[in-house]
Amino acid sequence: MPTVTYTHDDGSQQTVEMAVATNVMRAALANQVPGIVGECGGSATCGTCHVYVDHSTEKFTPPSGDEEDMLDWTAAPRAGNSRLSCQLVPIQAGTELVVRVPDKQV
Length: 106
Ligand code: FES
Description:
Radius of gyration: 12 Å
Strand order of the largest sheet: 2-1-5-3-4
CATH class: Alpha Beta
Number of domains: 1
Largest sheet: 5 strands, mixed
Strand content: 15-25%
Bound molecules: FE2/S2 (inorganic) cluster
């Protein structure tokens, strides 16, 4: 089962297991991870699931055009490793993904 570790600004971390084919936003909401809002339910139209991905832990396909557009409107600054967590779906059972949660989503 994939795991995802959410790192917060205060240095605290929360690691959760997630079902294969579940996205990183839904795993956060299911496990009460603070800082991930997911207002649009995963349609890449709200930007409230923004995370910074540690690329050493998983390679994802590049963002779609819609995700690229939405990343320009996130509350926290966009960085080179910014992604919408609703668009991140680990596909391998042993994946250990690490993401940093921004200090604000709205
Ligand atoms: Fe709205 Fe990801 S949940 S963009």
